[in-house]
Amino acid sequence: MRIETTRTAAPVRLQHACAMYSSSADLVTQATPLVADASRRGEAVVLSVRPESEARLRDAAGSARVVALGPDTPARSSGQTTAARLARELRELTSQAGAVLAVSEHDSALDGIDGRYWTELDAALNVALTDLPVSMFCFYPELPLHSEILDGAIANHPLLFERGRLHVNPEHRAPRDVLAGMPASPPVLLGAPDLDMVFSAWQLHEVRAAVSDLASATAFDVSRSEDVVLAVNEIATNAVEHGAGEARIALWIAGDGLVAEVHDTGEALTEPLPGLRAPHPADPRGRGVWIARQLCDVLHVWRDRSGTHVRMHAAP
Amino acid sequence: MCAVPLSEEQLWEVSADFVADGLDRHERVLYFDDGTAEGVLDRLADDHVAFERPLRTGQLAIVPAEATRAVFHTPLPEARAMMLEHIEGSKAAGYTGFRMTGQMSHGVDRRWPAPFAEYDRELDALVRERGITALCLYDRRRYSDEQIERMRDVHRKELSVPTAYDDGLLRVVRTGPTSARLAGEVDHSNRPAIARLLETTLDDALRSHSAPTDIVLNLASLRFIDVASAVSLVHAAEGFPDTHRLVLSDVRPGVLRVLDRCGAPFAAQLTVHEFDGTTDAGRTGPGPVVGPGRHGGGPGHGNGGTTGNGGTTGNGGGPPWTTDGHGDGYPHLREAR
Fold first, then answer.
1. Which DSSP helix (H) or strand (E) runs through B37?
2. Dist CA A123 CA A126 (whole Å)
3. Better pLDDT: B149 or B218
4. In angstroms, rounded to a whole number, what is the distance separating the alpha carbons of residues A297 and A85?
5. Which residue of B7, B261, B262 to mutate against A (max A Cβ within 10 Å)?
């Protein structure tokens, strides 16, 4: 897998706006002028909306390049993982096509038990897309099943899109503050792991050997196995570097790949969602988690009173 | 002769050198395996030594682990006869000599001390009478300190390889005034060692007018590098003066991917050469590299910590195991040739 690194700190910024809609037809009515304008400016259009809406908005896009992103089931209710993936796709697209308009529609299938997924997603997008020339319009239903979804949406978006106009959202708060009030949730519990070990900085090679053994025993080829070992190593390194010196790792081998969970009892991370921002070339820190996010299909970080936890899932 | 490797990496390094040396001299080489042959063959591949053909022709033979273990359950006269057969067979097949090495630790597990020493004496007799070459390896993982000391005493020569750094996970050997070879894995636990190595090597290069302006790290045997270490290599190269370059040679694909992701392609003073898997590939290092322990005159940075105290160092006099006359029978790193 090739990974692009950022070369310059671009002066562009994400425009992240929240919009409300009462029905699918309403969404199309509101988004159509946005898409048409973007098309006139020669921008590419990214759509993550229901199929009916997508067809209508494609018409509005005319000759503009349209990229449709399907529902993100593999993210397994990890908003930060979806954000990292979207950032990867948009980074590639903007490097080819310049500015991009993105329109997304709420999908209640991803709500989970309390709709927290959406709050985590939008907070993570603020971090992950910050240096990309992207105008992102997130459409939320006026009456979602969980009121927390709207609370989160209002807190996360610096801009509001109302009656066809953008204006500054006075209630917008920084991702860290939003996540302090509604932290990323733990993922669903798994059964007993295939391997569970406590390790220190001097035992990282044992962690790598364990991952490598499990990965090569399944469908991982050599280079994918090496990449997964690298990803787990970086998370494990972070755990013993910033944590209490010792950390725990649990490994599962599942039908669809390898799952690893690293737990440390260290102090709170300075960043609630590490590894989302592309590291600056001159900055020696922070690159490990970022690369791990690129290499894993899911990388979910959450915190609770016992410490920091990371779950990784990597398919062959 | 014997060697007391500090680590598995060094065990593979010393064994591979010994095997390659024999192949070069057109000797027959017998390797008694007991779990270490794979590492040695991997190292031979890293060193660009063509061993597949010798394996096919029988010039190089790997004795399987069960057979190696069985040697120690064979009565001594029988074992001797078997060895003689091997030696005569090699001569008859037109080889210039016969050498053997491998993993004999099973013998010490079972039959320490008397019988093990007897086997060793018998082998020593063959070395004297028949002019064969045998390398016995006693590492601390498989042998106790007492055993190592005792076996050191009964061997005539102990090989020592200059070691700049060896922590069991990563091994660094200086191969010239501004070059080194890394084997093993670099991670959070030993990252500072690499930084120090680069710093002192660059310092040496800058101080000496005659020293090459390329700092060459051979990474053929580096199997893992973590992100922070890769970043530190890239940053180190970026910090070099304009006149100097950091050259990473024989880089494995997995390590290359990490370097690429850490900005290596954008560092002007960093040159990365991919490992070329073909065994007859030329050496990638620039020009002839001076062998370890031979660049006398210099202050010899990083050459401290030779293995053991009775080590053979320097290049005075032909070692007794040199059976042919070309005087360079000193088993040294493949790098050095």
1. helix B37-46
2. 5
3. B218
4. 9
5. B261
Cross-chain Cβ contact B169/A234 below 8 Å: no
Find the helix or strand (DSSP H, E) in which B108 lies: helix B105-111
| pTM for the whole structure | 0.83
Q: Which amino acid is at B333?
A: L
Strand partners, B273: none
A205–B231: do the CB atoms touch at under 8 Å? Answer: no
- Residue B119 contacts residue B72 (beta carbons within 8 Å): yes
Cβ separation B224–A233 shorter than 8 A: yes
A3, A208, A287 ranked by CB distance to B224: nearest = A208
Pairing between β-strand B60-63 and β-strand B28-32 as defined by DSSP bridges: parallel
Q: Tell me phi and psi for residue B152, to 5 degrees.
A: -60, -40
Query: Which DSSP letter does residue B158 get?
Result: E
DSSP 8-state class, residue B122 = H
Phi, psi of B119 (to 5 degrees): -60, -40
* Chain segment A195-236, per-residue pLDDT in tens: 999 999 999 999 999 999 999 888 899 999 999 999 999 999
Comparing CB atoms, the residue among A5, A202, A234 nearest residue B226 is: A234
Residue A40 burial (10 A CB sphere; 0-12, 13-18, 19+): exposed
Mean pLDDT over each residue of chain B, to the nearest integer: 81
In percent, the amount of chain B with pLDDT more than 70 equals 81
List of residues 6+ apart from A280 with CB closer than 8 A: A6, A9
Within its chain, how far is the Cα of B272 from the centroid? Answer: 23
Residue B327: what pLDDT? 34
Q: Is A227 close to B231, i.e. CB distance below 8 A? A: no
ipTM for the complex? 0.88
Residue from the list B189, B232, B263 with its beta carbon closest to the beta carbon of A204: B189
Query: CB distance B188–A234 less than 8 Å?
Result: no
Q: In 3D, which of B180, B181, B184, B110 has the Cα closest to residue B147?
A: B110
